[in-house]
Amino acid sequence: MENSVKPIDRPPWGILAILMIGAFISMLNETLLNVALPSIMKDLEVTASTVQWLSTGYMLVNGVMIPATAFLIQKYTARRLFLTAMSLFLIGTILAGFATSFPVLLVARMIQASGSAIMMPLLMNVMLTSFPPEKRGAAMGLFGLVFIFAPAVGPTLSGWLIEHFDWRMLFHFVTPIAAIVLVIAIFLLKDKKKDVEIRLDFLSFLLSSIGFGGLLYGLSSAGNKGWDSQQVYITIIVGAIALVLFIWRQLKLEVPMLNFRIYKYPMFTLSSAISIVITMAMFSAMLLLPIYVQSIRGISPIKSGLLMLPGSILMGIMSPITGKLFDKYGGRLLAIIGLSITIITSYFLSTLTLHTTYTELILIYSARMFGMSMVMMPVMTNGLNQLPAHQYPHGTAMNSTLQQVSGAIGSALLVTIMSNRTKTHATDLAASAMKHLTGKPTPEAMAEMKQQIAMKAMLEGINDSFLVSVGIASIALILAFFIKRVKPAGNPHGGTADKKVVTKLAEN
């Protein structure tokens, strides 16, 4: 779709502020439950592989919905999209706050996610079209406060609430904030754009839902059912076939739902690959560490949350700084340094013991988050900068889709690895213990031995998962050496983008 080029008067800070607050609380909910998972497991009597669906399912719905956001951003006004998204998010939050069973809670989380899916691509698109290229790094640094700081601070807030209240308070806390944001948006959010008459290709939407959903469901189910289960490998195969058909259809459509032609821009392709890998590593740690801290070490939820607070603050401080550094030095140097730190700290997390000190955990986790803060937004911005302006909705939708799906798949995969390796270690440890057992132990001694074996087996399973994340982050580091600084592609009418002018989407 062709778009007009208009000079910038000044960025629409009022609209951006409302969108940022809405996006902040929606992203906050992505990790808000992580610290609460052990409490929910106990209260609703579900396993670790089942309860992780509260996080994985949330990201899955985001991944299924986000491919349609490029279409939605072009068709509807920012006001209409935001009000719809915030309403869905509020309904899901209220329902989750009163859930008394796991299925109801899971459905509520998915309703929340259907609203959240729209907010982040919408905010990113408005940011891209509101700032000239030479100021975009700093602007995206502000965006990074939402993208990085919100999910990072979630565990800290969650830990404090769980320590003092029931886990349902996590949703009761967010409900009034979401309601206030919705009311403010109704009265203050304005948009001059008119709706555009374009249609969504429902076959594409169906194929993307089956594709992403099948892959994630199969990977998540492997933790409970095993990799040799028919249900696991059939859903993965069906998901993979649907995803291939979805991509093929997008390349054939004149107006695709998700435009894969943007991958002809090499830096965007590279940034997508790095973002996928680093997101898998980041979200997996946010699930695995609370399980280690609470289930193995017996550390309280509030201390579990506080453990992650310094890293959250560090990411929040670094986000605008890395944006300015990106404007000055580009993305490659930042990505290489950040990924090197991520790999080293991930390795330390793969050597956890029953006696790793609380201080060590804080230092390692904070350093890891510091490293990631130097990678995410600079790499993403560098890739988007190469796209022509009329491709921004597709670029932001593609990035958001891949990040949500990769975060969900990464979490599901590494939790599955943890579960399977825990079973293997438990079997080996039990066999070793029985081999060295002398005499007939008392029931109390046998129960204590089983508990110790279970704890040690879970610890080794978590260590194995973190070791896999070291390999995942290493792939991203190799790719980072190929990053090149790019200038924005020519505008849709031809020519080079002027530094005093930003290509502004007619739809926004």
Automatic annotation (TrEMBL):
<feature type="transmembrane region" description="Helical">
    <location>
        <begin position="169"/>
        <end position="188"/>
    </location>
</feature>
<feature type="transmembrane region" description="Helical">
    <location>
        <begin position="53"/>
        <end position="73"/>
    </location>
</feature>
<feature type="transmembrane region" description="Helical">
    <location>
        <begin position="200"/>
        <end position="219"/>
    </location>
</feature>
<dbReference type="InterPro" id="IPR020846">
    <property type="entry name" value="MFS_dom"/>
</dbReference>
<comment type="similarity">
    <text>Belongs to the major facilitator superfamily. EmrB family.</text>
</comment>
<dbReference type="InterPro" id="IPR011701">
    <property type="entry name" value="MFS"/>
</dbReference>
<feature type="transmembrane region" description="Helical">
    <location>
        <begin position="106"/>
        <end position="126"/>
    </location>
</feature>
<keyword id="KW-0812">Transmembrane</keyword>
<dbReference type="InterPro" id="IPR004638">
    <property type="entry name" value="EmrB-like"/>
</dbReference>
<feature type="transmembrane region" description="Helical">
    <location>
        <begin position="231"/>
        <end position="248"/>
    </location>
</feature>
<feature type="transmembrane region" description="Helical">
    <location>
        <begin position="362"/>
        <end position="380"/>
    </location>
</feature>
<keyword id="KW-1003">Cell membrane</keyword>
<dbReference type="InterPro" id="IPR036259">
    <property type="entry name" value="MFS_trans_sf"/>
</dbReference>
<feature type="domain" description="Major facilitator superfamily (MFS) profile">
    <location>
        <begin position="15"/>
        <end position="488"/>
    </location>
</feature>
<keyword id="KW-0813">Transport</keyword>
<dbReference type="GO" id="GO:0022857">
    <property type="term" value="F:transmembrane transporter activity"/>
</dbReference>
<keyword id="KW-1133">Transmembrane helix</keyword>
<protein>
    <submittedName>
        <fullName>DHA2 family efflux MFS transporter permease subunit</fullName>
    </submittedName>
</protein>
<feature type="transmembrane region" description="Helical">
    <location>
        <begin position="465"/>
        <end position="483"/>
    </location>
</feature>
<feature type="transmembrane region" description="Helical">
    <location>
        <begin position="12"/>
        <end position="33"/>
    </location>
</feature>
<feature type="transmembrane region" description="Helical">
    <location>
        <begin position="138"/>
        <end position="157"/>
    </location>
</feature>
<feature type="transmembrane region" description="Helical">
    <location>
        <begin position="80"/>
        <end position="100"/>
    </location>
</feature>
<dbReference type="GO" id="GO:0005886">
    <property type="term" value="C:plasma membrane"/>
</dbReference>
<feature type="transmembrane region" description="Helical">
    <location>
        <begin position="268"/>
        <end position="293"/>
    </location>
</feature>
<feature type="transmembrane region" description="Helical">
    <location>
        <begin position="333"/>
        <end position="350"/>
    </location>
</feature>
<feature type="transmembrane region" description="Helical">
    <location>
        <begin position="305"/>
        <end position="326"/>
    </location>
</feature>
<dbReference type="Pfam" id="PF07690">
    <property type="entry name" value="MFS_1"/>
</dbReference>
<keyword id="KW-0472">Membrane</keyword>
